[in-house]
Amino acid sequence: MTDSLKSDIRLAVRSSIAHAARDAIAAWNEAICARVLDWDVAHQSTTICAYAPSVFEADLSPALEGLMELGKTVCLPRVDWDAKGMVPAVVTDLTTLVTHRHGIAEPGERAPVVAVEDLDLILVPGVAFDERCNRLGRGGGFYDRFLGGVGPDTPVAGIAFELQMVRSVPMERHDRAMDAVVTESRLIVRR
């Protein structure tokens, strides 16, 4: 039942994004980036792990460039597809990302890896989120495994368009709720 519900949510949200106007998505991306750059948690963080977006995810590129200009160390996941794992690797120039499987851009092999415990903030994509800051991913478990190694004191924030917010995300034992969700119109902090 849970897998069927998750599949239904994924299909509905992806359909909504696919049917959204490109200029609306551009405006939403701009608003999300501004909200991230204005967020006090981002300002207080030194080392931030984010992501390079897929077609159905908010594009944080302007925010990441802004964070780098502020002197923050920005990392993106480098994926080990065989081990189904990820490690945060430092990025100093978003134009140097390498595209691998499934069209996902990531730091090259020479980019230095940062220990997960050295991250001060993690910005996470997802297919859907709810107001309790629960997250539904793509279904591969990559972020579940990655976040499983993150300490409880490291803030983890989901990044999403408002149309990715759903009434309720089904959660399983291994799922980690986000500490916050940032959309184009609000910052939701888990209580």
Commentary on this structure:
The chain is of the alpha/beta class and 191 residues long. The protein has a single domain, classed as Rossmann fold, CATH 3.40.50.10420. The protein contains 5 helices and 11 strands; from the N terminus they run αααβαβββββββαβββ. The chain has a 7-stranded mixed sheet with strand order 3-2-1-6-9-10-11. A two-stranded antiparallel sheet has the order 4-5. Helix 2 (22-38) packs parallel to helix 4 (61-69). The longest helix has 18 residues, at 2-19. The protein starts with a helix and ends with a strand.
The CATH architecture can be given as 3-Layer(aba) Sandwich
Mean pLDDT: 94
- C-alpha end-to-end distance: 28 Å
> Unreliable segments (pLDDT under 50, ≥5 consecutive)?
none
User: Largest beta sheet: what is the strand line-up?
Assistant: 3-2-1-6-9-10-11
What oligomeric assembly is this protein in? single chain
CATH superfamily: NagB/RpiA/CoA transferase-like
Task: Tell me roughly what share of residues is in helical segments.
Answer: 25-40%
Q: What best-fitting shape do the alpha-carbon axes yield?
A: globular
Q: How many discrete structural domains?
A: 1
Number of strands: 11
CATH topology term: Rossmann fold
Report the portion of residues in β strands: 15-25%
What's the helix-strand series? HHHEHEEEEEEEHEEE
